[in-house]
Hints:
By secondary structure, the chain is mainly alpha-helical. Helices cover 65% and strands 3% of the residues. It has helices at residues 3-30, 37-55, 58-66, 72-90, 93-116, 119-142, 149-155, 163-185, 199-212, 248-267, 283-297, 301-315, 323-330, 344-363, 371-383, 409-428, 432-437, 442-453, 461-469, 476-489, and strands at 222-224, 230-233, 236-241. The chain has a 3-stranded mixed β-sheet. Helix 5 runs antiparallel to helix 6 (119-142), helix 11 packs antiparallel against helix 18 and helix 12 (301-315) packs across helix 13. The longest helix has 28 residues, at 3-30. The chain is globular and about 65 Å long. The N and C termini lie far apart (67 Å).
Amino acid sequence: MTAFSHLMAFQRETEALGLISERLGWDRETVMPRGAAGQRAEEVAALEGVLHARRTDPRIADWLAGAQAPDAAGARALDLIAHQYRRASAVPADLAAELARATSLAQGIWAEARAADDVARFLPTLARIVALRREEGAALAAAGLGADAYDALLDGYEPGATAASLGAMFDRMRPRLVALREAVLGAPAPRALTGHFPAAGQMDLARRAAAAFGYDWNRGRIDLAVHPFSSGSGSDVRITTRVAEDDPFNCLYSTIHEVGHAAYEQGIAPLHAFTPLGRGVSMGVHESQSRIFENQLGRSAAFTGWVFGQMQQVFGDPGLPDAAAFHAAVNRVHAGYIRTEADEVQYNLHIMLRFDLERALIGGTLAVTDLEAAWNARFLADFGFAVDRPANGMLQDVHWSVGLFGYFPTYSLGNLYAGCLHQALRAALPDLDAHLAAGDASPATDWLRDHVQRPGGLYRPVELITRACGFAPTEAPLLDYLETKFRALYRL
Length: 492
């Protein structure tokens, strides 16, 4: 065997073990007994120790030095393995295991604190995770993997991005978003959907929507979770959603969002399975798939017309007179606390808040004990009304409890990519709306599979989006799309 084949065989086992670890996380957040949290934390920590030992195995350096890539895909795989090796080697094994243990325990503590609206119950755990992530970020930055601790953590989710570049992006986006929000909120609001929508009917509708977007049920399943997520890759990609019986859009669009993530993983070329190319290339690109599914496609007038008919089948009269009123209700801009329920106009403003706060937490300029006050003050300044309770404030997201510092800005980057992809997709598929109106998203999902999903990690994020769109990514298509859509809906 050559050095390259030795390395790829070793990597195949490492990738398989990583998927097992991910499955333990899925189980923890869906069906694991509450009393098993402590045991699961030890299991996850033990497996992370095995994974860390493999990722830092000195033979990797020897294989990399002697490996000859047979083709461009092999060369890209070597680059990714080398980068992963540098990151893993920079983090001490005991720190990696402790992070796994602490974040496994923290998810349950966060969920209990959120349910009880009790910030104090969560703060000691969050302080521990922030300290561990600061330590990890500092170790990575010292190894040359980021200008500072935050950039080093960000690199783990969006290679090539920096806090400075993302901050500049937000500075360019904010004025147009704020101006649009003020104009929209100053106009008469469309009628909202109200009523009681039983959970069983919502799950039926969610399954219909997932099927419309091509989710492969032979390689997936849907379950309930406190915070919806997608998990897995290749032949086992699972999604979760949540149900509020007075708000069917929460379940419906959470499901479509997670189907976007799942479709990416299901759409990667099988030949990349169990290699570094066999997963989505970055969280920003991943988010581009979930956001374009959820918003540009799922909230379009054509698709919501189909959903309106499905709602009538499942629930009877939904209380809105026609498909146009239903489309307006789906896209209604409203004052709200929750990021995952935010309309397209305001969503990125929620991300900007979290981006600034988490940079300050990792940078040490904001103490965990001051986070709630900082969140509430920033929310009031940005959105114009006060947070009413912690579950609608700093406790609403799972991300910080599981240590995902550097993850939040990739949501807005995904929106930016989705805006570019939507512009290119519409140019390529002029009759798309006729298919969406029939509940058939396949022309769009096939285009995305061919241009974005199938390559997996073969190209760097910006290169992938540029190849798909024919132009370098910029925020302009997203902002133009939002202004065109919402000025029409609100007759501005």
